Amino acid sequence: MRSLLFVPGDSPKKLDKSMASGADALIVDLEDSISAANKEAARATALAFLRNAKAAKQRPRLLVRVNAIETGLIDGDLDAVMAAAPDAIMLPKAEGGASVIHLDAKLAVREAENGLPDNATGIVALATETATAMFLVGTFRNASTRLSGLTWGAEDLSADLGAQANRDTDGNFLDPYRLARSLCLAGAASAGVQPIDTVYVDFRNDAGLRRETEEARRDGFTAKMAIHPGQVAIINEVFTPTREAVAHARRVIDAFAAAPGGGVVGIDGVMYDRPHLIRAQTLLARAKDAGIKV
Ligand code: COA
Ligand code: MG
């Protein structure tokens, strides 16, 4: 998955539109984009959409962002949407591995109730939305085999920290949010799951989105969330390995294959050792995921 598009769960129009957005995944939102008065209606709208979308011949992955564990709404959310067997649940305000284990148990019950295979439902956690969560990012490792990705959020974190802003006047994230971003990346690598960069809310600013997405790729993120269909093409493009990058990765892998037992090779006067081989293998796997012949 390169792009994950948020779609408010109470908007049949946006849900419908999202299917043609080109996003690798949709995140049907029952949480922050839904007013308290609309929570119940959103569950029904989301369920109807998921049922239809699952029947489509070609479809993006379908995630549902439920309300946080503390809200008391999460059980009703899961009762509603698990009947349609979404591919994964996004857990907001996660506080480390314990909250993933908690959700894992809730999912196991709903899978049994709905006749779904055990572990059919994945989990993607929003790992840095509270101050407490920042200290627990290292605890996702081995929490649950359902966990497939970690992402981070700056909006809720800034509310929890009592901050007035999370970006400077040039649009760059301020220190606490850069830390959250780095912790998410390290937490995801430590847990062996996909690191997913946060949303870019200035949705008419394509240049700003591209820059932030390229910085995310440079640092190790392999996907980014979107809030508007207009953001999807840029995100997909940035996270699709280029032909040159694929060719280079192939050369590195071939050079190691041609020197069995060797831990180091030289290509065009540059040294490559084990970390370079791993990077090349990871890049080819991502290219394959994006539908590129490798
Ligand atoms: N998914 C699907 N369709 C969307 C969409 C989304 N996330 N965001 C906008 N669209 C649709 C609009 O409905 C509109 O459709 P139309 O041309 O048929 O009228 C079209 O795309 C263009 O939208 P635009 O007018 O540019 O934006 P807007 O003012 O309608 O919507 C937002 C702006 C921010 C309200 C909207 O993008 C949105 O709801 N984003 C998701 C918010 C969210 O889920 N937040 C929670 C996570 S941070
Ligand atoms: Mg939020």
Key features of this structure:
binds magnesium ion, 11 helices, 294 residues, alpha/beta, TIM Barrel, globular, two-stranded antiparallel sheet, binds coenzyme A, 15% strand
Fold and architecture overview:
This protein is of the alpha/beta class. The chain folds into two domains: 3-239, TIM Barrel, CATH 3.20.20.60; 243-289, no CATH class. It contains eleven helices and ten strands. The chain has helices at residues 12-18, 39-55, 74-81, 96-113, 131-134, 155-161, 175-191, 206-219, 232-239, 243-257, 274-289, and strands at residues 3-8, 25-29, 61-65, 88-91, 122-126, 147-151, 194-197, 223-226, 265-267, 270-272. The strands form two sheets. An eight-stranded parallel β-barrel has the order 1-2-3-4-5-6-7-8, surrounded by six helices. It has a two-stranded antiparallel ribbon with strand order 9-10. Strand 7, helix 8 and strand 8 (223-226) form a beta-alpha-beta unit. The structure holds coenzyme A and magnesium ion. Magnesium ion binds at residues 32, 92, 153, 155-156.
Taking the alpha carbons of the first and last residues, their distance comes to: 17 Å
Count of the domains: 2
**For the record, what is the CATH homologous superfamily label of the largest domain?**
Phosphoenolpyruvate-binding domains
- CATH topological fold name of the largest domain: TIM Barrel
Q: Report low-confidence residues grouped into runs of 5 or more.
A: none
Which sheet architecture does the biggest sheet show?
8 strands, parallel, barrel
Strand order of the largest sheet: 1-2-3-4-5-6-7-8
The structural class is alpha/beta
Question: Under the CATH scheme, which architecture of the largest domain would be assigned?
Answer: Alpha-Beta Barrel
- How much β-strand is present in the residues? 5-15%
Topology order in helix (H) and strand (E) letters = EHEHEHEHEHEHHEHEHHEEH
How many strands? 10
Shape designation: globular
